[in-house]
Amino acid sequence: MGEGYYWERYGQFDGLTRLDTIELDNEAYSFNLLGLWKGEDGYYLATDSGCSCPTPWESTTREELTGPLTANDATEEATSLIEGARGRKYTGGPYEGDVDEFLSLIV
Fold first, then answer.
1. Number of compact structural domains in the chain
2. Would you call the peptide bond into 68 cis, given omega within 30 degrees of 0 as the criterion?
């Protein structure tokens, strides 16, 4: 999802590479995002949400990221956040490919 969005300048943290961002609920005129970063010490996750006015990640600090996480812990946490936000298991849904692609980045 990430490349090409005007808000790419936000969510950049020293020592971390942002791997991807996924929309958790696909609501109109708002965002509810899950971001995934990788550092030398593991994976980091964060969520950010708002209406269409603020820019995603503009007020997120590195201290607010969850991590470092192992690959297994990051996969479990991301899956839990996705399922919790969507109110159901993501498998078989219209965004299953997006979720699978996002989770495949955690190796």
1. 1
2. yes
Please tell me whether the overall predicted TM-score, pTM, comes out greater than 0.85 for this model: no
The span from the first CA to the last CA of the chain, in angstroms, equals: 18
In a domain, 12, yes or no: yes
In angstroms, the CA 54 to CA 22 distance is 17
Over residues 40-90, the pLDDT tens digits come to 999 999 999 888 777 888 889 999 999 999 999 999 999 999 888 776 555
Beta strands, E only, 29-100: 30-39, 42-51, 66-69
Question: Does residue 1 fall inside a structural domain?
Answer: no
Is 64 part of any domain?
A: yes
